[in-house]
């Protein structure tokens, strides 16, 4: 199979790239900074510098990867941007990056994959959202709102592409033990409930794509906790989530 992963130079994306590569698939990845994969690089992985916020950039990377190959079998968008703004302020630049990467980047990736797969009459597209995106309340963070948008965008593309034999899988993980998560939390993850290791996350995600599942939320405990919270009145959910965000920031410098 030909597999392309946007945001594949680190974290979950890179782990998925290794998974498919070790299965014998042809794998291409892209990211804004290829230096992030220098310490983990392995032979024959095709890496491209590209920005999902630039539709021409991401399209060029995928076309360069495919070259003379006939089909793009799987496209996975793992690119994302995070900054917490519930219990603290974020800069305009941080907000802009989240909006562009998480929303515009999602659309650009879908469009790139759609244009290639529509003529094939087959293919699988997957996007990494977040379990936080299943919550809908007034004072949710900008990150949560962007990831909720990702879920909705994916649902729209799923409906539109189904007649062409193209499946769309949305992945909404809880906390996954990646290098980025550790960097954001000064290597202290004791306040991250139901933490999932990367290998387990890769297994769940790859199986969901293979089975053409619509929406996969994991781990199960986080899924049911968030679904339970979503049943609360908005004012109560606002209070709970604000206190949770403030508690998680208490030990940070």
Helix percent band: 40-55%
Based on CA atoms alone, the radius of gyration comes out at 18 Å
Number of helices: 8
The CATH superfamily is: NAD(P)-binding Rossmann-like Domain
Averaged pLDDT, please? 89
Query: How is the main sheet built?
Result: 7 strands, parallel
Reading off the top of the CATH hierarchy, the class is best stated as Alpha Beta
Derived from helix and strand composition plus strand pairing, the structural class reads alpha/beta
What is the strand arrangement across the widest sheet?
A: 3-2-1-4-5-6-7
User: In CATH terms, what is the architecture?
Assistant: 3-Layer(aba) Sandwich
What sort of overall outline do the alpha carbons produce when their principal axes are compared?
globular
Number of domains: 1
Order of helices and strands: EHEEHEHEHEHHEHH
Question: Can you count the beta strands?
Answer: 7
Protein name: SDR family oxidoreductase
GO molecular function: acylglycerone-phosphate reductase (NADP+) activity; triacylglycerol lipase activity
Keywords: Oxidoreductase
Family: Belongs to the short-chain dehydrogenases/reductases (SDR) family.
